[in-house]
Amino acid sequence: MTKPKPVRYQIEFYPPGKRGDADVWVYIETETPIMALHVGDVIHPATWPDSKSPTKALKIDEIQHCLWETKTHIRHKLMVFSHEIDNQ
Fold first, then answer.
1. Is residue 68 part of a domain?
2. Does residue 34 sit within a domain?
3. Using one digit for the tens of pLDDT, what is the confidence trace for 9-54?
4. What's 8-49 look like in SS3?
5. Which of 10, 20, 71, 83 has the greatest number of beta carbons closer than 10 A?
6. Range 62-70, long-range pairs (CB < 8 A, 24+ positions)
């Protein structure tokens, strides 16, 4: 029986109001599963590196998942798209 491959998790946050053709704003990679995010969730990015909007919050508009397998890992990437809202 073959040993299961480890899973690597990635999450990419795109700049507010942008879509997949934009550069990634914040990138996180981990071996620990990422908690569930949903359309409509509010995120507070003030502490993220290069945050341009410390007094704003982001509301998630869309989430895309990408899954693939490499020689050594299974990869699960989340791509998160949002827009700015007043801080809540």
1. yes
2. yes
3. 999 999 888 876 778 888 889 999 988 999 999 988 877 766 665 5
4. EEEEEECCCCCCCCCCCCEEEEECCCCCCCCCCCEECCCCCC
5. 10
6. 63/37, 63/38, 63/39, 64/20, 69/5
CA-based diameter of the chain, in Å?
53
Residue at 36 is within a domain: yes
Number of domains composing the chain: 1
| Cα–Cα distance measured from residue 41 to residue 33, given in angstroms and rounded to the nearest whole number | 18
Q: For residue 25, give Cα distances in angstroms to 49, 53, 62.
A: 9, 12, 15
Residue 65 scores a pLDDT above 70: yes
> For residue 76, what are the domain limits?
28-40+61-81
Task: Give bridge partners of residue 76 from the DSSP assignment.
Answer: 9, 67
pTM for the structure as a whole:
0.83
The single residue listed with the structure tokens 């509301």 is 59
